[in-house]
Design goal:
The protein has a domain of 272 residues. The chain has 441 residues and is α+β, with helices and mostly antiparallel strands. Strands 2, 3, 7, 8, 9, 12, 13, 16, 19, 21, 22 and 23 form a twelve-stranded mixed sheet that branches. The protein contains eight helices and 23 strands. 48% of the residues are buried. It is 20% helix and 30% strand. The structure holds zinc ion (ZN) (2 copies). The site of one zinc ion has 4 residues, from loops. One zinc ion binds next to loops.
């Protein structure tokens, strides 16, 4: 049990709101309470979306409306290696959504569809551009659409997909001589565009376990990468890993532990996203929208304000659990769930302590043969330091933590899960612990 003294301190900090930043290491440890008050609001958004511009099965405008109708404040379109900014006509019967998508589009927006019939008698529709869709369906302060791209690269057989949010110009996959080098090259390309244009944009590593492409050892070494997907709603991305491969939660803990203790790199934040491709059969086993998202605490609904908050860690990720507050101080970490009646919550505080067993072993497949996968780490890495039942929980540092983060698990099953038997969850961002070494840069 935490001492009453520290709980009192946490609630004082909570009452004061975002407290002055006190930094004892050069790892970022903003002392803050994330809670909606005054101008500060939680904005719900999805940062991974596919449409007819690549391999999604619906029109951009209908997807914009789906998220608007379903309680989202912002949405980032991230089609594969394309921006929706050119004139493009598609043959209805050859689109992923075929007549189903077309009929729904015509029914919902009868005066908006531009279509023509070719000499061969084929019905074609012009895909609306991002600018057209944003002009018509975004509403200042209420609903924001952001241009993005899924930079879809690969090395050998490993898919390397990285989302650029608020990108201004198309980025072509940069490639490289290894998975790590390709990731680094793509991160560098986004940062270069950001610097050249002066427009804030962020890059994040998508679904590390898709095609078992990305290992923790690769991800931990990418410089300038601040985000990765701890939860992706596509059913083919193996969030939970398997007996050979680490889960995305475990990858996160390995990355955090090594970046803090060995690599002298900033921590990485975990995103929840949909990666929606299939919009006509909901719920289903397809890659539906509505499975994972972020709640960003911001004083306005603009790309600039949201990105500033994301980069400062003023957000959490969710697949159904809503939080009222997240408080991090030099004393510890506390979370409060916006509890639903009849639902139980378990809060796990996860972290790694200084002096952890840092030995690792090669990953082996079923036959005992070495495989290219995240290595095996001791149970000291990303240990569950404390478990609390109930919607309110706090963790008090004992002094040897490198970082601590909270994972909240609901007793309610996800209504449209990406994996069978999945409970609704939320993930706080990690807070740097008292034993994190000062950075040398
Ligand atoms: Zn992808
Ligand atoms: Zn995707």
């Amino acid at each position: 049990m935490p001492r009453p003294q520290s709980l009192a301190l946490l609630s004082i900090v909570a009452a004061l709101g975002i407290a002055a930043t006190a930094v004892s290491t050069s790892q970022a440890r903003p002392e803050q309470t994330l809670v909606a008050r005054g101008e500060l609001r939680w904005y719900r958004g999805n940062m991974h979306t596919h449409s007819h511009w690549s391999d999604g099965n619906d029109y951009l405008e209908m997807i914009a409306l789906w998220y608007k109708d379903n309680g989202y404040d912002f949405l980032v379109f991230t089609d594969h290696n394309v921006l929706a900014n050119t004139e493009r006509w598609v043959e209805v019967d050859k689109t992923k959504g075929k007549r189903t998508a077309y009929d729904k589009l015509k029914a919902r927006l009868p005066d908006w569809v531009e279509e023509r019939t070719t000499a061969e008698g084929n019905l074609e529709v012009r895909l609306r551009t991002f600018a057209e869709v944003s002009d018509r369906f975004a509403e200042p302060g209420t609903y924001l659409l952001i241009q993005g791209e899924e930079i879809s690269d690969k090395f050998d057989k490993a898919p390397i997909h990285m989302n650029a949010s608020n990108v201004q110009e198309l980025l072509t996959p940069r490639g490289g001589n290894s998975v790590l080098e390709a990731m680094q090259n793509n991160v560098d390309a986004v940062i270069a565009q950001r610097e050249r244009t002066g427009v804030p944009m962020i890059v994040h590593l998508n679904h590390p376990n898709f095609g078992w492409g990305i290992t923790a050892e690769d991800l931990m070494r990418v410089v300038g990468e601040q985000f990765f997907e701890v939860y992706n709603g596509h059913p083919g991305v193996h969030n939970s890993g398997d007996h050979v491969h680490a889960s995305t939660d475990r990858v996160w803990d390995i990355v955090l532990t090594w970046r803090i203790s060995e690599l002298n790199l900033p921590i990485m934040y975990g995103l929840g996203v949909d990666d929606g491709h299939d919009y006509h059969d909901i719920p289903s086993r397809n890659s539906n929208p509505g499975r994972g998202w972020v709640y960003v605490l911001s004083n306005s609904l603009t790309p600039e304000a949201l990105i500033e908050s994301l980069e400062a860690g003023r957000f959490y990720s969710s697949s159904g659990v809503q939080l009222a507050s997240v408080t991090s101080t030099d004393k510890g970490l506390a979370v409060e769930v916006k509890a639903d009646e009849g639902v139980d919550y378990t809060v796990e505080f996860i972290g790694t302590r200084k002096g952890f067993d840092s030995r690792t072993e090669e990953a082996l497949d079923e036959k005992g043969q070495p495989v290219r996968a995240t290595r095996r780490y001791s149970s000291d890495v990303g240990a569950v330091l404390k478990t609390v039942s109930g919607p309110k929980a706090s963790y008090e540092f004992t002094g040897d933590e490198l970082y601590v983060r909270a994972r909240i698990i609901s007793s309610r099953l996800h209504p449209n899960p990406s994996e069978e038997g999945e409970f609704e969850r939320a993930w706080s961002q990690p807070t740097i612990g008292p034993a994190a070494p000062p950075a040398n840069d």
